[in-house]
Write a structure and sequence with these properties.
This protein has 270 residues and is mainly α. It has helices spanning 3-6, 10-20, 26-35, 47-55, 64-70, 103-109, 146-150, 170-175, 187-195, 203-214, 219-231, 242-250, 257-264; strands spanning 82-83, 89-90, 120-122, 127-129. The chain has one domain (3-264).
Length: 270
């Protein structure tokens, strides 16, 4: 890191990113994430995935939370999930999926404007949902105000880590074909359930979506790295592209110094 980067002033970075990422562009950002997801709801399974699917629940099951209550072990013991030397979570059956924030960390950090598990009506399942947050392990919600930080119907920017609005509407996600019946709330609901041990035929698609957003060469991970390089700021300066940082957090990823250095090698000069 250069001396100039270390001494980068917050005001310079803030002005730089205000120009590049006004809040009015957040819906466009999410639309582009979806556009990069070429698989959408059509799941193409390898023979290995098909074998897994025979052993696990259908991709269109909507009753996982009830089944979990009936399991003798209540699902996977999440304390068994380890991290590698890079701080990435390790899922032995899906080594290609390497987020570095657990669902608990995403919620505790301040995400989704506090609205993720709000009451909704799903046009996919034609059902109303509320209190879905109750399927989440209690310790994930320690210290959080459920009505304001988890299941609020009102979006609050100040709940988010980076104090910005970030995300498209449920209607947008549904009409774009990215929601399937088993997880009517979307990707993060899938992640919460996957983390707790559920496996379904939809896992390959959801992991692919994550990779295209926040994986090693993910669009928004590299987008953030590029903007940091060109701003001259340190990799973790929160004023550089706060909307993209918040977006990546919702996908279980936070930029690290090691990832920044590696990604910076791919940044082309202006």
């Amino acid at each position: 890191m250069t001396r100039r980067a270390n001494q980068c002033s917050r005001s310079v970075c803030t002005n730089h990113m205000t120009r590049l990422h006004p809040n009015s562009h957040t819906t466009l950002l999410y639309a582009l994430i979806g556009k990069a997801d070429s698989t959408k709801t059509k799941v193409t399974l390898s023979s290995k995935d098909k074998d897994k699917g025979k052993k696990n629940k259908s991709a269109h099951s909507t009753d996982w939370s009830e089944d979990k209550k009936n399991d003798s072990d209540g699902g996977k013991n999440t304390s068994e999930i380890k991290r590698n030397e890079k701080g990435q979570l390790v899922f032995k059956d899906h080594p290609e999926f390497t987020p570095n924030m657990s669902p608990k960390e995403v919620l505790q950090a301040g995400s989704f404007g506090g609205t993720y598990f709000r009451p909704i009506y799903s046009s996919i399942t034609k059902q109303h949902y509320k209190d879905v947050w109750q399927e989440i392990p209690k310790d994930w919600l320690d210290g959080l105000n459920i009505s304001k930080q988890v299941a609020s119907s009102t979006y609050r920017e100040n709940v988010n880590t980076y104090n910005v609005k970030c995300g498209g509407s449920l209607d947008m996600w549904e009409s774009s074909g990215w929601i399937v019946p088993q997880d009517p709330y979307g990707w993060f609901q899938w992640y919460c359930r996957f983390y707790q041990g559920r496996r379904t035929e939809d896992d390959a698609r959801q992991i692919s979506r994550w990779a295209k957003c926040a994986g090693v060469k993910g669009r928004w991970r590299q987008n953030l790295i590029t903007k940091v390089v060109r701003s001259g700021c340190v990799y973790d300066n929160p004023s550089v592209s706060p909307v993209v940082r918040q977006t990546l957090q919702h996908w279980g990823y936070k930029l690290t110094l090691e990832d920044y250095k590696e990604g910076a090698k791919r940044v082309k000069p202006k």
